[in-house]
Amino acid sequence: MRIGWFLRPLLVAVLLALVLRPEWFTPLLAPLAPENGPVIYTRASLLSLSLSHLALVAMASAAATVVAVTLAVLVTRPAGAAFRPLSRTITNMGQTFPPVAVLALAVPALGFGAGPTLVALFLYGLLPIFENAVTGLTNLPPATMEAARGIGLSRWQRLWRVELPLALPVTLTGIRLSVVIALGTATIGSTVAARTLGEVIIAGLLTNNTAFVVQGGLAVGLFAVLIYDAMVQLETRLARRMGG
Asked: Which terms are listed as keywords in the entry (predicted)?
């Protein structure tokens, strides 16, 4: 626990320095740059690329959460139970197709930019959220559900006041996994002109500049670690409040 309290502020400080003052890392990255080549990526602000990257992930994850949780609610009702295998197959399709293939298929319809990337991230994020939401909604304490019926709550009231809150910690685990996957996957969006931190990595690969690759990869990695840790803390607190 003490290590965590020390490590988190350190990682936040490193990330802020990398995004806001990348030139501070010149001495560390200089040995990785080509001779007489640039060390720090300057074609675009790392701050603007980071904000755009996070915005794409947030929009795709929010859409995936709404669709996946809604689908999970429908297939865990008696009337929709028969559609659970079909729903699982549909959400699995997002993981079956590689994101690069989704981008290639989406570009002719949506054009270059953020659109194809959002589609790829949305499809890729459905499965973990759906599976965890279904698990949470099908493993509710029978005594609690019986008590909710006993006090006269309707089906909708039981769903909103009892079922979804009790399933929230498990559902959040799926959302966490989806968000972390999206943070890494979003980098390929730069291949279709989306503004992400992948722009720095791709520029490094094209110019054989390892300093750029490390710079972009480190930023994405730090965002993933810190967001993952923040969501784990949130899940832990919710689980404690729910008595789990």
From this structure: Membrane, Transmembrane, Transmembrane helix, Transport
Residue 85, pLDDT above cutoff 70: yes
pLDDT in tens, 152-173: 778 888 888 888 888 888 999 9
pLDDT at 113 over 90: no
Residues 27, 31, 33, 34, CA torsion sign: positive
Sequence-distant (6+) residues with CB within 8 A of 173 are 132, 235
Do 94 and 124 meet the contact criterion of CB atoms below 8 Å apart?
yes
Structure confidence at residue 2 as a pLDDT band (50, 70, 90)? low
195, 51 Cβ separation under 8 angstroms: no
The confidence band for 95, taking pLDDT boundaries of 50, 70 and 90, is confident
pTM value is 0.89
